């Protein structure tokens, strides 16, 4: 079939043509936006799940909902080697811009911009250097004088509370709110997670129209709870998982139907067997199957013909790139996880079992384990066990 008309979109954070299986989350967020704008109490939100399940896609879709309701929005991606202060300042600046042009009091807008500039300027030299290395400007482009005595204490939690309060008030004047979206939230330092939680808690108690929506790996809820004991009650936690069969079929058939193409049932059966409903795999296999198919309807034989191409592409771009980031010791650790997980569908593996498998003492493997966690390749599923952050990664390692 014509590859130019191929409707599937495998890509990091790239929205698929049919966002299947996320209707409930989208509907709930509409309610959240309405309640917050009306001054009613509502919790911020945290999305968590494995890589490739569509967390970033959903995060962007939620932001789109806020934009359509004329909210001020901004988005950051947390990084393990960088403070969140400068990224937050830039994201909040974007949100202020989105509401400022509709505000009737330019002096009030300038006051808030001054507080924002003050918040951004309160950075350490290390923060500035890290921002420069990441290609970020360390001061927001606002042509106002920095406010004094507001959001400039150096205490991140206190400064966030003051910044969020002023920005939320600005948006509230227009009957809307502000939403800050934080991707890869688990990569923020524990102290900064605590500061974000503390600021969200205070803003929520004030009833101010500002919410934070975070997204991260499965251990993000645990990391938040470790930073602040009340975090488990502060957010509404949403587990983003693979698609059930009906939704996976919809992700294949609806885009194809818009191009006048149908699928045989056997083809859909085989696609689901290969992908397990993981959204990234759904798009990847859908794309190569379209290109391999002779015409409509798409047959199981087309899926079989295309599968090696999908596997090869995933082996390089999705799995291989992550594997290459690991040191030899970390690769040995992951190989042991894959071997032990073969009989249990790559579920969590006890760290003590990994040590026995490698003939090593558990303490000697801590550097490899910690390195893999920092690189986002594994996560602590529960105390004393680890699991891959990437679906089918164990299968990939066993095939090498």
UniProtKB/TrEMBL annotation:
Molecular function via GO: electron transfer activity; heme binding; metal ion binding
Annotated stretches, region: Disordered: 1-21
Domain Cytochrome c: 172-323
Organism: Nocardioides soli
Keyword set includes Transmembrane: no
Cited Gene3D superfamilies: P-loop containing nucleotide triphosphate hydrolases, Winged helix-like DNA-binding domain superfamily/Winged helix DNA-binding domain
Keywords, comma-separated and alphabetical: Heme, Iron, Metal-binding
Entry superkingdom: Bacteria
InterPro entries: AAA_16, Cyt_c-like_dom, P-loop_NTPase, WH-like_DNA-bd_sf
Name assigned to this protein: Cytochrome c domain-containing protein
PROSITE patterns named in the record: CYTC (PS51007)
Pfam family of the protein (one): AAA_16
